Amino acid sequence: MKTPRLDLVSGAPYWPLAAGLLGVYPPLTANAECEVAVVGAGITGALVADALAESGIDVIVVDRRDVARGSTAASTALVNWELDVELEALSEQIGEEDAVLAYRASLGAVGTLERLIRKLPDSGFTRRSSLYLASSPGDVRRLQREAELRARHGLPSEYWDRKRLAGSYSFRAQGAIRSGGSAEVDPYRLTHALLARATGRGARVFDRTEIVREDFARDAITLKSARGPFIRARRVVMALGYEIPRPLQRDIVKLSSTYALISEPVAEWTGWEDRCLVWESARPYHYLRTTGDGRVIIGGADEPFRDPARRDRMLPRKVQRLSQRLAKMLPSFRAEPAFGWTGTFGSTGDGLPYIGEWGQAPGRIFALGYGGNGITFGAIAAEVIRGLCLGEPAEEGRLYRLDR
Known about the structure:
By secondary structure, the chain is of the alpha+beta class. It folds into two domains: 26-125 and 185-253 and 349-404, FAD/NAD(P)-binding domain (3-Layer(bba) Sandwich); 126-184 and 254-347, D-Amino Acid Oxidase, subunit A, domain 2 (D-Amino Acid Oxidase, Chain A, domain 2, 2-Layer Sandwich). The protein has ten helices and 19 strands. Strands 5, 6, 7, 8, 13, 14, 15, 16 and 17 form a nine-stranded mixed β-sheet that branches. Strand 14 and strand 15 form a beta hairpin. The chain is globular and about 65 Å long.
């Protein structure tokens, strides 16, 4: 097996040969027109393009990088419906009815992803339960209330006390919420598979094409590329990951640097036989998942983002810290570190993304601020944006509006 190297541009590991074989797209070399232009060819852009193309909408996808080589390549790909802001806390912010609607939309998005992926080439999608560990004894009562609230609204969660947890897992914690309905996936392969299906339905994809200017007319937006050719579209979807597009204020989301470590293949899974997703009640939190080839991924060690150079310089120290954290969370587990990587993500105060139109930017639709639920929120964004483009706004779309 070839050893993956660290891509210091995107801060993500990749297979140098395989990365170019999943899909090759040309840069924009001639002017083009479409109904909807999607700026960003990561997992969200691919989900949006696939949904729009399925509905018969003429769509063009453009990215300044190669396809899926931005924040998608750095994703640790826990497809979790549980939000970074707990249901009880979210209820205090937006009301219990809307908080439950947001949680149900997230749970439903995992099912939507499964249905989408069922007809695509293998992208490593596997259903997993999740284990939300109490990071300290003081968190136990809060997690008990959280589990009770979720159960009252039909969400698939239950509280496990320390004794029950120790009987099934080797994780050290005073208690945990165990939930069904989550998953894991290979986001790089999934992005390429979605774009391949979208192009088969008429979509056009151009990567290595940087948009440097936007010109607004009454019924169209013109995207001028650095090479010269332009795209003219009725609507533009900005799906840029953690990059905040103009004219939005940069503080609309909080940017953080995050780090991840992947192990060599593990021989035994004693104390973690079901290989569920694992995360913690502390903020910021650490999280664990496994891979199809029998490795462990641990992520976390987050800190406020300052600049890419500082983020990358801290990688060796952060990887060492993650290795120590893995040993503490699973003291009887043996997982030899293989390599690490780093990336940047954006999050919001209520844990919900920003998806939708903004009155001060006519013709543009935004999708950003995903926190730890990037792929799940990407699936939600695809349905919300499809509804907007078809004139059929989704009920839950109001939860994600930019002016909330």
